[in-house]
Amino acid sequence: MARDYYALLGVGRNASDSEIKRAYRKLARELHPDVNPDEVAQAKFKEISAAYEVLSDPDKRRIVDMGGDPLENAAAAGGGFGGFGGLGDVFEAFFGGGATSRGPIGRVRPGSRRRSGSSRCRRTSRWWWWRRARRSALISSPAR
Prior knowledge:
This protein is mainly alpha-helical. The protein is about 55% helix and about 0% strand.
């Protein structure tokens, strides 16, 4: 059975997006768990948050207007796998958290011994160090 999301927010079926937002914010101010620690108020806050989520999305709102419940359809689409949201969950479990990852790790990490301009060969890197030290000594010494 589909819930009446419009009645939860106290707006009519022909309400605009701004009216729905205004009604949600008014109820959220009264029922938010930080303001109202009552268990009944917390349950009501969860209901109005779900109603706002549905009515603020045009696709979900269209489903509600046709008599369906988008939140029931999403739960039934899982096929009995509660909490399994699809293939993305599997990749997150193995490779880390999708959008929150910072990308691949580079070869040279910050604080490692290799610097740009030096070679992998130890002898060559010593040569670069000597050349750099010699050049700075020549620049800083007075003209002869």
